[in-house]
Amino acid sequence: MSTEFESLTTEAHRPELAEIDQRSTLDIARAMNAEDAVVPGAVAAQLPRIAAAIDAAAERLARGGRLFYLGAGTAGRLGVLDASECPPTFNTAPEEVIGLIAGGPEAMVSAVEGAEDSRALAAADLDAHGVTPDDVVVGVSASGRTPYAVGAVEHARARGALTIGLSCNAGSPLAAAAEHGIEVVVGPELITGSTRLKAGTAQKLVLNMISTISMIRLGKTYGNLMVDVRASNEKLRARSRRIVRLATGAPDGVIESALTATGGEVKHAILTILGGVDAPTADRLLTESRGHLRAALSAADRG
Fold first, then answer.
1. Residue 1, pLDDT above cutoff 70
2. Does the active-site annotation cover 35?
C-alpha cells in the first residue's frame, strides 16, 4: 500500500511546505488560495471528456434512466450532496439522481471502517436499486483506486449501464474500468494526502457539470432559468414568481394567476403566458414535448 501511495500524485509530499505550520495565517491562506487556483485549469483540460460523458449520460436519462454517484469518504459525500440538490433545483424525483456512499448514511458524518475497500459492497448497493442498462453510474475517487468506486463501475458496466469514472490521478484503474474516464490531475495537496482540498474541489466542479448540463439537455431549464424549480418554501415560491417574470415580462397579477392555475408549476405558468394556452393545454403540450419548454412553445404557436 505504501508503494502505491508513493506513485499517486494526490498523495505526493511537498517538501517546500514542510514548515507551513510556522507561517502566518494570512500566508497560509494565500498559499491555499494559490493552490485552489490551479483547479479550474485542470478541469478545463478534461472538458472534451466531460462533455462526451454528459452527452452519453443525457441520452440514457432521456430514456428514463437514473443517475448514480458512488464513492467513499469525501468523494462519496460530494456525490450525495450533488444528488440531494437535484430535486429542489430541477424538480427531479428522489429516485432519479441517487448518491451512494460506502458504509451508507452513517458514513456521511463518521468513518465506516473497511467500507471503501469492498467491491462487493458497491455491487450490493447497486443491486438494491436494480441498476439497468438505461442507468448512468459515476464512480468517484480522488486516488482512482478506491475498491468501492472501481467495483461500482465494474459491476454497473457488466449490467449494461453507462459508466463514468472520475478521479484525480492519471492512469487510474477507475478510469480504465469506465467507458468514460475523467482524470482531473490537480497535483499534490497542501496538506499531504488531504484530498478533500484540491481534489475535492475538482470533483465538485465536475459533478456540478454532469448534473447541471444533463438537466439542461433534458429541458429542465429555459435559457439559464430554473423553470423546473420545486417551490417547497416561501423563498422558492418567491424565486418561482421571479423566474416567470424574467421569462415572460408579465405583470405581477398575470403571473400570480398563471401560477395559481397551474398549481405553482413554473414551466406550465410560462407556457400559459407566452403560448396563450390554458393550464390543461400547457400540461398536454409539455407532456408531448417531454418537458422541453421551447418545443412546447413552438407547438403552441403552431396550434
1. no
2. no
**Nearest Cα to 199, choosing from 43, 84, 72?**
43
CA distance 205 to 302: 40
Given 35, 116, 154, 265, which residue is catalytic?
A: 116
| Side chain identity at residue 94, one-letter code | P
Query: Cα 253 to chain center, whole Å?
Result: 36
HSE-CB of 130 using CA atoms within 13 angstroms? 3
Q: What is the mean pLDDT of residues 121-133?
A: 97
In the chain the beta strands, taken as DSSP E runs, fall at: 67-71, 97-101, 136-140, 162-167, 180-183
In the structure grid, which three cell numbers stand for residue 291, read together?
418537458
Provide the β-strand partners of residue 98. 68
The answer to whether residue 85 is catalytic is: yes
Give pTM, 2 decimals. Answer: 0.91
As a whole number, the mean pLDDT across the chain is 93
Please state whether 90 falls in left (phi above 0), alpha (psi between -120 and 50) or beta: alpha
